[in-house]
Specification:
By secondary structure, this protein is mainly α. The protein contains 16 helices and 9 strands.
Length: 470
C-alpha cells in the first residue's frame, strides 16, 4: 500500500481546516462571479490563476453554480444561495435538455438537485412552485440522460458517452445520480408507442455493465489485468453489441489507468451502494420482467457494485503517493524518472509527470462513503481502512501546497490536470509539466468533500445526492 494512512484523524479534527477552506472558497466564488462572462461558455480550468473556458463539452457549468450552493450549505451565507439559485434558473435550462452528453449528473444534480435537496432538508424556505420547477428539471434531465442508450449482445445496455453509441465511459458512474433522482421522483422515460422505460432499470444495467467491462479484477482478462485497474472507455461494436476493447480518452493508454477515471469509479459505485441500501427499490428493479435484469438477484447486484468499488479503492490506495494524491496516470511514460515516488508525498513541481489533485478530491469522498457503507454492513475492518484513507487525503488537500490561499488565484485546489494527452493544461514558463492550476470539478468536489466531513463532525444529516427527495 503506497498511501500512508493517518489512523488518528477524525472528522472533528479536520473542522479547522474545513472552516478555512470555506473562508477561502468564498473569495474564489465571488471573484469568479465578478469576472466570468457567460458568452464565453462555462469556466473549465485556470490559466495563470484565472478561470477560462475551453470548449469540448459543457460539463462544468453545474460545478460553477453548484459550488455556490455548497458554500451556502456549509456557511449559511445567503448571498451564495442567491448566486447559485439565480444562475441555475437563468443559465442551466439547456443542460436539462442536452441530448448530446453523458454529464447530466454533473451539471443538473449539482444545481437543481442541490436546490431541491436544500429545500427538502429545510435549509431554504419551502416554496411549492420552486419545488415543482426543480423536480421537473430533474425528471427531464434523468430521462434525457437515460435516452442515450446502447443495447449490447446479452440484451442489457449502457448510457453511451458523448463519443457516440460505441462508447461506455467510467465517468458516467457518477452521472447515474440523474437517473436515481428522476426515478425517485416517480418519472419514467417514454419510448415509441408509449413504451414506459424504467429509469431505475437502466441505472441497474449501466452500473452492472460498467463493473463488468470498465473494471478489472485480476482474472486474466488481458495481459494487463490487474485487480482494480480501470479502463476509461470500453468500446463496443454497435452492429452486434459485442465488446471489442478498452480505450482511453484522457489517460495515457487503454492498458494503464487514468487516475481521475479511477476516482470516478470509486465515488460512483459507492454512491450507488448508498442509494440501494434500503433494498426495496433494488428488488423492484432486478426482479422486474424486463430483459436486462433476468437472472440478477438483489444480493448479486449488490455484490457486483461492492466488488467493483473495493477493487478500484484498493488499486487507488496502492497507486497513489504517500499523501494520497496520485500522478495523473499509473502508466505515464516518465514515471520511471521519479524514482520511488509512491513512497513519498506527491510532488506537484516535479519535472516529469503531473499529479492530479482533482482525482484525489473525488476519490477521497468515494473512500469515505465506501467506508461508511461498510460500517453499516458490519465490516468494521475494511470500513476503517477506507474511511481513514479518505480523511488522510482530505487532510492533504486542505493544506498547502494544494489549498490555494492566494486571493488573486480564482482556483481553490491547486495542481489539477484536465487533458494531458491533448496538451490542454497550462504549463508555466520554466516548468515542463502543468502545475499550480485548478479545475471546476476539482474545486467543486473539494467543497463537496469538505461539506460531507463537516456534516459528520457536527452530527448533522448525512450528505447524499438524494437528500430526503421523494
Amino acid at each position: 500500500m503506497a498511501i500512508k494512512i493517518n489512523h488518528k484523524l477524525t472528522p472533528q479534527k479536520l473542522v479547522p481546516q474545513i472552516e478555512r477552506l470555506f473562508d477561502l472558497s468564498a473569495q474564489k466564488i465571488l471573484s469568479l462571479e465578478k469576472t466570468w462572462k457567460p458568452e464565453n461558455g462555462a469556466p473549465v480550468f485556470t490559466v495563470k490563476g484565472k478561470y477560462t473556458s475551453y470548449g469540448w463539452t459543457e460539463w462544468t457549468q453545474g460545478f460553477q453554480f453548484g459550488s455556490a450552493l455548497l458554500q451556502f450549505d456549509a456557511t449559511g451565507e445567503k448571498r451564495f444561495l442567491e448566486i447559485g439559485r439565480r444562475n441555475t434558473i437563468q443559465r442551466m435550462a439547456t443542460h436539462v435538455s442536452h441530448v448530446g452528453v453523458h454529464d447530466h449528473g454533473f451539471n443538473n444534480i449539482s444545481t437543481y438537485g442541490n436546490l431541491l435537496r436544500l429545500m427538502c432538508e429545510g435549509k431554504i424556505a419551502f416554496n411549492e412552485r420552486e419545488k415543482d420547477f426543480y423536480e421537473l428539471a430533474l425528471k427531464v434531465s434523468g430521462a434525457v440522460q437515460a435516452a442515450r442508450w446502447t443495447r449490447i449482445h446479452d440484451g442489457t445496455g449502457f448510457i453511451y458517452s458523448f463519443n457516440g453509441p460505441h462508447s461506455l465511459f467510467i465517468d458516467t458512474m457518477r452521472s447515474l445520480r440523474s437517473l436515481a433522482v428522476a426515478h425517485r421522483l416517480g418519472h419514467s422515460l417514454m419510448g415509441e408507442r408509449d413504451q414506459k422505460i424504467s429509469l431505475l432499470q437502466r441505472l441497474v444495467e449501466h452500473a452492472v455493465n460498467t463493473a463488468r467491462y470498465n473494471v478489472y479484477y485480476g482474472e486474466g482478462r488481458d495481459a494487463y489485468d490487474v485487480r482494480g485497474r480501470i479502463a476509461h472507455e470500453s468500446i463496443f461494436n454497435v452492429n452486434d453489441g459485442e465488446y471489442r476493447c478498452p480505450n482511453s480518452q484522457q489517460g495515457y493508454s487503454p492498458f494503464s489507468t487514468w487516475t481521475r477515471g479511477l476516482a470516478w469509479a470509486i465515488l460512483g459505485f459507492a454512491e450507488q451502494l448508498e442509494f440501494f441500501q434500503g433494498g426495496a427499490r433494488l428488488r423492484r428493479a432486478v426482479e422486474s420482467k424486463s430483459q436486462g435484469s433476468r437472472g440478477l438477484s438483489p444480493h448479486r447486484f449488490n455484490e457486483t457494485l461492492l466488488r467493483a468499488a473495493t477493487a478500484a479503492a484498493g488499486f487507488y490506495l496502492a497507486n497513489s503517493c504517500a499523501d494520497g494524491v496520485p500522478v495523473w496516470d499509473t502508466g505515464a511514460p516518465n514515471l520511471h524518472r521519479l524514482g520511488d515516488y509512491l513512497n513519498k508525498p506527491g510532488d506537484p513541481f516535479n519535472k516529469w509527470e503531473p499529479v492530479d489533485s482533482s482525482a484525489a478530491a473525488i476519490a477521497a469522498q468515494g473512500l469515505i462513503r465506501l467506508g461508511n457503507y461498510l460500517a453499516q454492513s458490519g465490516n468494521t475492518r475494511d470500513s476503517a481502512l477506507y474511511k481513514q484513507a479518505g480523511l488522510t487525503i482530505a487532510n492533504t488537500l486542505f493544506h498547502g501546497p494544494y489549498l490555494s490561499a492566494n486571493p488573486k488565484h480564482q482556483g481553490l485546489i491547486l495542481h489539477s490536470v484536465y487533458h494531458r494527452p491533448n496538451g490542454w493544461d497550462y504549463i508555466a514558463p520554466g516548468q515542463k509539466v502543468p502545475n499550480g492550476e485548478s479545475s471546476m470539478w476539482g474545486d467543486y468536489h473539494a467543497r463537496e468533500l469538505a461539506l460531507l466531513i463537516l456534516r459528520e463532525a457536527q452530527g448533522k444529516t448525512y450528505l447524499t445526492f438524494l437528500g430526503t427527495v421523494g
